[in-house]
Amino acid sequence: MTKHNNMSRSWRRVAVNAQAWTPTAKEFAGAIARVQRDERERILRFRFIQDAKSSLVGRLLLRYLVQEELGVPNAEIELVREESGRPVLRCPEHVSQLRFNVSHAGSYVVMAADSEREIGVDVMDHRRPLHDDVERFFELMTTTFTPKEWDNIRRSDTHGTALLEFYRYWTLKESYIKAIGLGLRMDLQRLQFASDPRLSHAQDDLMAVVDGATCEVDGERLSDWTFEQCHLDPRHCVSVCVHRSPGSYRPQPFVIMDTAAVIDALAPLREDELDDPAVMGIFAQMKDKPQRQ
């Protein structure tokens, strides 16, 4: 096996519409046989099919990244979770500089990677919340944003546009705290973002990437982080945060991949589980999630 010290590309941005994948119980069993046993057990505890598919595709996508970029076969890849829940690569050790992050919401699973710099990604489906009207939802989320951020979010004329702006700001904050490994342990009031206004016009070119968003932490502007924003489709917005100075690289658009292509590229870790009746039985008992508007 050829070993590589660096990725063939400095960064990767990949999105998969996991909900467009409609596996049979046997196909689901075959896919889950390609991830580690601890992840298999975690995924099988999900109640809803949509959650199980998103989680599984996320793990498959990370394994696909390591295999394709570093020439490491699936059987030699070991992923573990940090205390924050962020996945990291334990084995093989020679690729310890590889940084990656994954997120899923709505229909999509997204992955962003960098050859050596910290990186975070977050995607959101900006449809109306399932159980709350928009104003009630905003009231519940008051402490998520600073007064200035709320002014920018509420500047929109309609609830639908305001909700989209809410999630644009949400993905910016999430991408940063995921990149630094703190998760929701960080006080979000310490962060103040200004979204790139060019993104408002990106619906005409959905996947166009803008990188003009800025962030202040405790009142000090971050000068060595870049924030990328784009849409994947009219329902999903995504942000990527990478520890590279603005202008030091050219942000790349997301590449849309098919779930089946990711699965087919990875060899099973356990051949005897490709049609495991226990897995197929659990999958058959999973329910569909209530639909949002």
TrEMBL record:
Its EC number is 2.7.8.7. GO terms for molecular function: holo-[acyl-carrier-protein] synthase activity; magnesium ion binding. Keywords: Transferase. The keyword Transferase applies. GO terms for biological process: lysine biosynthetic process via aminoadipic acid. It is an enzyme of class 2 (transferase). InterPro entries: 4-PPantetheinyl_Trfase_dom, 4-PPantetheinyl_Trfase_dom_sf, AASDHPPT_N, P-Pant_transferase_sf. SUPFAM superfamilies: 4'-phosphopantetheinyl transferase. Residues 119-200 form the 4'-phosphopantetheinyl transferase domain. Residues 20-115 form the 4'-phosphopantetheinyl transferase N-terminal domain. One of its GO terms (cellular component) is cytosol. This is holo-[acyl-carrier-protein] synthase. It comes from Salpingoeca rosetta (strain ATCC 50818 / BSB-021).
